[in-house]
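Hi everyone,

Forwarding the result from last night's run.
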Amino acid sequence: MPNIIEITDFSAHELDVYARLTEGQLLNRHEPEKGLFIAESPLVIERALDAGYVPVSLLLEKKHITGQAQHIIARCGEIPVYTAEFDVLTKLTGFQLTRGALCAMHRPPLPTVEEVCAHARRIAILENVVNPTNVGAIFRSAAALNMDAVLLTPASSNPLYRRSIRVSMGTVFQIPWTFLGREAEEWPQPGMDILKKLGFKTAAMALRDDSVSIDDPKLMSKEKLAVILGTEGEGLAASTIADCDYTVRIPMSHGVDSLNVAAASAVAFWQLGRK
């Protein structure tokens, strides 16, 4: 039976996870085994459940208990299901709920790079991409356009931040990912060496005189390829580019010199992920 709990006390500590904890507090770097994240909307929550993520509690607009969230509640067992009318929830969270449903979930232990890449042919590397919106958009493109995994450098934004999950439409739960080390000093080395030991050729997305076009047959023929995308604004570090096997550009027109990293990722994944 579902454990439905009507919200009457906005200050109840059980609701902190939805209304008062920061992303950093949810991540819980000091005790990662206690880390949580928030999934929004019935579709995204379903994708997290399908991927095996474990729910802690639900926060629902009252009408959804017997509506579009009914199936989710049934899948979540006896966890608390906090509920109230739309206006009350908006007051509690400070914003309108995305389609009326939030779910707090446990953060699982991160897999190793070797585990994530074990059966991968094409992977994406995000170097210091700090905007959660961009991270979410890149994951959505990666899942849709034949990337087998995503690796992030330690300075990148966490894919389980609420906005990243929302923008990705839950594809962060569908494509394997992990971080290339825990400290910024671990990239580009030894991270780059790990990729090469796993058999990946590395392609840096950057505009340089020696860049090859993204449709170069040499790139398309590689059995295992890692597509490396740089931070917003500055792009890839010079040391990263120097360590890569290829420097790759997307041909531009009308005098445009570059694309937003999320847009560039979609173009790169479409071309380089083709089989």
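Residues 132-144 form the longest helix (13 residues).

Cheers,
N.
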